[in-house]
Amino acid sequence: MNIRSLLGAAVCFGFTLGCVTGCKPRGEAPPSGGAGGETVSLSYSIFFPPTHVQCITATNWAGEIEKRSGGRIKITVYPAGSLTKADMCYEGVVKGVSDIGMSCFAYTRGRFPFLEGLDLPLGYPDGATATRLANEMIAKYKPQELNDVHVLYVHAHGPGVLASKKPVRSLADLKGLKVRATGLSAKIVEALGGTAVAMSQPETYEALQKGVVDATLCPIETLKGWKQGEVVQYIVPSPATGYTTVMFVVMNKAKWEKLPGDLQKILTDVSREWVTKHGAAWDEADREGKAFVTELKREFIELPADEKQRWQAAVAPIIDEYISKAKEKGLPGDALINDLRGGIAAAAKGAK
């Protein structure tokens, strides 16, 4: 299904699920239902705008939950940070401001020291691979830093690119360039010689438009999904920027524990199915993002092989630093990186 079809489906779901776009007061969540056979009403805070494919995919998830529960679970989606802002979404779930939340681990840098390894520039080939591996790693390592919530699933975008208002054809062109980045992607910018400016996606369009930043490090889907292709001129793909950003879908732990077992199973089963759907949605969005900027006649800059090697050498210390710091904290960062590299290599081999 292409994004236009998904958009059409979202309109229908919007009426039945109450996907809020301004009709409810900011910060006012619906009441939660009781136990037993009563309806359980849950609020779901999402930082993506309602038209973004990932908000649509999440809204469809909520619809499937309601369907399979026979209406015993009703989820109201609050998109575009209308209930909790992107960088407060996780904390909002912990404190019960929302029952469920979707945002990026990277927006609260330092809070998830083990999970930071998932976002490293390891050369992810696509969103489906990044999403699958992120879920596998969390299931395998069960990081304690997630103990204050119940994890439903995570998803992750395809390989990052540099999208710039100025041409970047070498490391020299990156020197001093103000680049929007978050979490570990900020370290990528700094390693390449740029100046990292931390901000979430909702802030980026205006920052590019007004010259607050010169460029952004992002998946190519962002250039359409957040319309940022309108305010950049050049796109530079590179293995050195082949990072991802893992996004959580987590639930308030106390709210989860109050649910009867059959409803917990429905949430778990549907979430497992939606891992694949989110990964596929990221890849479809990347294709549409590339088509969008191509139609706008933006220039794609293909770095020569020797320049790509210089970029990769520049970011290599970031991975070494992560492994070293993880070891200091007693975290198996080296094992995580080995697993991720093995998974990426296997995905690349399978694609041939």
Give an account of the 3D structure.
With 352 residues, the protein is an alpha/beta fold. The chain is built from 12 helices and 11 strands. It has a 6-stranded mixed sheet with strand order 7-6-8-5-9-11, sandwiched between helices. The longest helix is centred in the C-terminal third of the chain and has 35 residues, at 261-295. The chain is globular and about 65 Å long.
- Overall, the morphology is globular
Series of secondary-structure elements, N-terminal to C-terminal: HEHEHEHEEHEHEHEHEEHHEHH
Helix content, binned percent: 40-55%
Low-pLDDT stretches: 1-35
Number of helices: 12
Q: Mind summarizing the main beta sheet? A: 6 strands, mixed
**DSSP, total strands:** 11
From the alpha-carbon coordinates, what is the Rg to the nearest angstrom? 20 Å
Strand-residue fraction?
15-25%
Please state the structural category: alpha/beta
Strand arrangement in the largest pleated sheet? 7-6-8-5-9-11
Mean pLDDT: 90
> Terminal Cα separation, in Å?
24 Å
Q: What features would you highlight for this structure?
A:
352 residues, alpha/beta, 12 helices, 11 strands, disordered N terminus
Please write out the topology.
Layout: H1 3-17, E1 40-46, H2 53-68, E2 73-78, H3 89-95, E3 100-104, H4 127-141, E4 149-156, E5 160-164, H5 171-174, E6 178-181, H6 184-191, E7 195-198, H7 201-210, E8 215-219, H8 222-225, E9 234-237, E10 246-252, H9 253-258, H10 261-295, E11 299-300, H11 305-328, H12 333-351
Parallel strand pairs: 1-2, 1-3, 6-7, 6-8, 9-11
Antiparallel strand pairs: 3-10, 4-10, 5-8, 5-9
Helix pairs in contact: 1-2, 2-10, 4-10, 4-12
